Amino acid sequence: MKIKRILVSQPEPENGKSPFYDLAKKNNLKIDFRSFIHVESVHAKEFRKTRIDISDFTAVIFTSRTAIVHFFRICEEMRVAISDSMKYFCTSESTAYYLQKYIVYRKRKIFFGKHRLIDLMDVINKHKDEKYFFPVSDHHKKDISKVLDINKIKYTKAVLYRTVCSDLSDLSNVNYDVLVFYSPSGIKSLFENFPDFKQNTTKIASFGSTTAKAAKDAGLRLDIEAPSPEAPSMTMALEQYIVNYNKNCN
Q: Cis peptide before 227, with omega less than 30 degrees from 0?
């Protein structure tokens, strides 16, 4: 049987633009989007138990837009006035630009890297005297903390939001030829919702090494992996696999 239906375990793009739409049109595919996980806030009452005073810090490290959202949310809930002198260190330019929703961008000290925190360490090391606040989720990458520790950066890490499994019960009778995952949490959600899931002929696609490891650790057969030198994006990896697979089904 040819591959015709794909489920991407992420929210549907809001702007109606995505390489997935191009992939579907070009290869006559039906592609659905459904987030397997969602974010829940750590509210002020719970955060107060950490005895962390955000006003004590002079800089913030952001690794995602979600971290930005919850940092400013918790500040609002706790009525913390953020100093105009606060410095913002973001792992990517797009994350940094997202700050415009909360601050006057051109009047603040904002630094950003190419994509990873390690790309930003040269700048952070030039500001070693700062006291850094590092907002994270309960499932954050531990290697980020290791980079800061190795460089002897003074920082305090705090969980401001949690990644939890979504209810997928409405998908119980829906069959897809390919399931696409972007995080270990997505793999966890699959089995939490469908503990008796059997892969059989369903193809599993994963993005990133940690997601691939989670899939294999869960006993799944990994058919499509990205990124790779030949396919730096998930849509490229899918297209290469599907074109070849469907051709052999003729």
A: yes
The reported pTM is 0.76
- Of the CA atoms within 13 Å of residue 39, those in its CB half-sphere come to 19
Pairing of strands 37-41, 155-165: antiparallel
C-alpha closest to that of 137 among 53, 202, 201, 64: 64
Q: What share of the chain is helix, strand, coil (3-state, %, to 5)?
A: 40, 20, 40
**pLDDT per position as a tens digit, 34-77:** 999 999 999 999 999 999 999 999 999 998 999 999 999 999 99
Domains of the chain: 56-163 (3.40.50.10090)
Contacts of residue 176, Cβ cutoff 8 Å, sequence gap at least 6 = 5, 6, 7, 32, 202
